[in-house]
Amino acid sequence: GRSANWATTDSLCLSILAPILDDKPRQLATVAAWTRSRSLWVRRAAAVALVPLARHGKALDEAYRVAAALREDREDLIHKATGWLLREAGKTDPARLERFLLAQGPRLPRTALRYAIERFPAARRRRLLVQTSGRR
C-alpha cells in the first residue's frame, strides 16, 4: 500500500530491496510469493527486485521461477518487468535464457519476450519470435 506507480516501485526495488536480497538470499522465497499478490505493484516488485541480482548472475533460479509465475499476468507493466528481468538474466547466461524462452513458447507475453531478446543478434531475435509464436 506504499507504492502507487511503477517509478516508486522500481526505485524501492532497485535501491532498497535488491541490496537486502543480495545480503540475505534466504529472503528470496518471500519475493517469489509476491507473484500471487492482488497488488500490481507488489507483483511488479517480485520481478524488479531481482533485476540487479540477475544482471550479475545471482539468484537466476529464482529469477526464472518468478518470470514463469508472472507469465499469465494480464498487466502490461508486469510483462515489461518480466522481460527486463529475463533480459538481465540472459546477460550472464544467454543459452539458459534461450532455453527458457523456447520452453515457455507462446504462453509468454510478446512484450516480455521482446524485452528479453533485445540484446540478441537480429537473426536470433527473429528466429526466437517465430519459434515462440505458436504457429509451428
Give the structure's gist in a few sentences.
This protein is mainly α. It contains nine helices and no strands.
Report on this model:
It is a single chain. The protein is an all-alpha fold and about 140 residues long. Helices cover about 70% and strands about 0% of the residues. The chain contains nine helices and no strands. It has helices at about 5-25, 30-35, 40-50, 50-55, 60-70, 75-90, 95-105, 110-115, 120-130. The radius of gyration is 14 Å and the shape is globular. The model has no long low-confidence stretch (mean pLDDT about 95).
| Overall geometry | globular
In total, the number of strands is: 0
Strand content: under 5%
> Share of helix among residues?
55-70%
The mean pLDDT is: 94
**Uncertain spans:** none
Indicate the structural class.
mainly alpha
How far apart the termini lie comes to 43 Å
Count of separate DSSP helical elements = 9
Radius of gyration: 14 Å
| N-to-C order of helices and strands | HHHHHHHHH
From the structure provided, what is the oligomeric state, counting identical versus distinct chains?
Answer: single chain
Task: Describe the protein's topology.
Elements: H1 6-23, H2 28-33, H3 40-48, H4 51-55, H5 60-69, H6 76-92, H7 94-104, H8 110-116, H9 122-131
Helix pairs in contact: 1-3, 3-6, 5-6, 6-7, 6-8
Task: Give descriptors for this structure.
136 residues; mainly alpha; globular
